[in-house]
């Protein structure tokens, strides 16, 4: 008995010492973790790429001669599926870039050229209607904006920016080279994972069974199963919904004769991958682009997007994504806000499936503790819903 108490005291003392050391050397620990993350980032990125591509690869393998007896086809099925998955993803990204970037440059060029013209027209309008806008007209006239001076200042500022960019060319080139190398390493690592995923799964299972009790291992596998189902359903659902929303937006803009229809539709399709707020970010971008051509059309475009969002939120999203992730709308919004605050765009993307996984696991525990069968709606003591 005394031995048990002594061992407990030793554990508590060691725990206290570890806590004190953790607090004392917190900054050093963070630096060490940052260094480890910097080294491991390409591998983590590769694992993430492999997970996303695996969803598409499994579908390709089901279609690519699934019952073939030919040894060559069976031997090349995995390689062909991996290659096809990479080609599809690379093709989609390339198409988005080719659609968005040229028209984006054109829109900014139009905007810069239009600033003096818009100012002159506005000044002439208010001066010709001085009776209606007397105070505003006097105020604008009193500004006495020298467009040549403004242009010179903008040119000087731009030259400073260009000079700064040229001075930091080596830093930019180094960062770009590092990013490209990390991406190449990540892609290679992803290919290795996809090519040998069954072997890796067997090895991981052996490690888990060797170091964990059966009950703990089963619980771990259940958590991973829920997380995998939630993440895969979310990724597939969001991609399908983004494509549908982008196509509807592009078609509607063509029918309503809005400018930059293809570019704005592609951009909204890309931003729609971010739940809740993504489409609104795309709408703000689209309104700004259309504003460079026609301010009234930009206003009508916002009305069009609001209507499209209502259709998407009430008809498309419930049927495409539906309740596959099992997370109520309130918690979806909370997950996006918290995820964005913690991890930026990446946090917004993955905050929802993480929250959905935690929500499912917590729901299972609540039902288990209340001895309520899964799927049965909780009722209170009086029997009312």
From TrEMBL:
<keyword id="KW-1003">Cell membrane</keyword>
<feature type="transmembrane region" description="Helical">
    <location>
        <begin position="170"/>
        <end position="195"/>
    </location>
</feature>
<feature type="transmembrane region" description="Helical">
    <location>
        <begin position="12"/>
        <end position="30"/>
    </location>
</feature>
<feature type="transmembrane region" description="Helical">
    <location>
        <begin position="234"/>
        <end position="256"/>
    </location>
</feature>
<keyword id="KW-1133">Transmembrane helix</keyword>
<feature type="transmembrane region" description="Helical">
    <location>
        <begin position="78"/>
        <end position="101"/>
    </location>
</feature>
<keyword id="KW-0813">Transport</keyword>
<keyword id="KW-0472">Membrane</keyword>
<feature type="transmembrane region" description="Helical">
    <location>
        <begin position="329"/>
        <end position="359"/>
    </location>
</feature>
<protein>
    <submittedName>
        <fullName>Predicted PurR-regulated permease PerM</fullName>
    </submittedName>
</protein>
<feature type="transmembrane region" description="Helical">
    <location>
        <begin position="298"/>
        <end position="317"/>
    </location>
</feature>
<feature type="transmembrane region" description="Helical">
    <location>
        <begin position="36"/>
        <end position="57"/>
    </location>
</feature>
<dbReference type="InterPro" id="IPR002549">
    <property type="entry name" value="AI-2E-like"/>
</dbReference>
<feature type="transmembrane region" description="Helical">
    <location>
        <begin position="262"/>
        <end position="291"/>
    </location>
</feature>
<dbReference type="GO" id="GO:0055085">
    <property type="term" value="P:transmembrane transport"/>
</dbReference>
<dbReference type="Pfam" id="PF01594">
    <property type="entry name" value="AI-2E_transport"/>
</dbReference>
<keyword id="KW-0812">Transmembrane</keyword>
<comment type="similarity">
    <text>Belongs to the autoinducer-2 exporter (AI-2E) (TC 2.A.86) family.</text>
</comment>
<dbReference type="GO" id="GO:0005886">
    <property type="term" value="C:plasma membrane"/>
</dbReference>
């Amino acid at each position: 008995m005394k031995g048990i108490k002594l061992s407990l005291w030793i554990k508590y003392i060691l725990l206290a010492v570890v806590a004190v050391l953790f607090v004392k050397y917190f900054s050093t620990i963070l630096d060490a973790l940052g260094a480890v993350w910097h080294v491991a980032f390409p591998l983590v990125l590769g694992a993430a790429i492999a997970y996303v591509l695996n969803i598409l690869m499994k579908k390709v393998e089901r279609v690519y001669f699934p019952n073939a007896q030919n040894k060559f086809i069976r031997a090349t099925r995995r390689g062909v599926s991996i290659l096809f998955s990479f080609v599809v993803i690379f093709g989609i990204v390339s198409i988005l870039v080719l659609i968005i970037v040229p028209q984006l440059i054109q829109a900014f060029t139009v905007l810069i050229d239009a600033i003096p013209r818009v100012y002159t027209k506005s000044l002439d309008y208010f001066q010709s209607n001085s009776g209606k806008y007397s105070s505003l007209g006097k105020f604008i006239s009193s500004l006495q904006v020298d467009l040549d001076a403004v242009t010179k200042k903008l040119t000087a500022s731009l030259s400073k920016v260009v000079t700064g960019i040229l001075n930091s060319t080596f830093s930019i080139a180094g960062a770009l080279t590092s990013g490209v190398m990390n991406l190449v390493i990540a892609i290679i690592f992803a290919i290795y994972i996809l090519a040998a995923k069954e072997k890796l799964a067997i090895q991981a299972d052996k490690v888990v069974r060797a170091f964990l009790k059966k009950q703990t291992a089963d619980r771990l596998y259940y958590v991973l199963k829920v997380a995998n189902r939630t993440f895969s359903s979310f990724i597939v659902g969001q991609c399908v919904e983004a494509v549908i929303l982008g196509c509807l937006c592009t078609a509607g803009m063509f029918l309503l004769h809005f400018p930059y229809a293809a570019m704005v539709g592609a951009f909204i399709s890309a931003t729609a991958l971010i739940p809740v707020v993504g489409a609104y970010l795309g709408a703000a971008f689209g309104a700004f682009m259309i504003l460079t051509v026609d301010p009234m059309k930009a206003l009508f475009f916002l009305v069009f997007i609001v209507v499209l969002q209502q259709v998407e939120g009430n008809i498309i999203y419930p049927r495409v994504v539906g309740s596959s992730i099992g997370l109520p709308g309130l918690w979806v919004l909370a997950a996006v806000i918290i995820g964005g605050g913690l991890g930026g765009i990446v946090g917004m993307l993955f905050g929802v499936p993480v929250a959905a996984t935690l929500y499912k696991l917590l729901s299972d525990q609540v039902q288990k503790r209340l001895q309520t069968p899964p799927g049965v709606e909780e009722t209170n003591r009086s029997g009312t819903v």
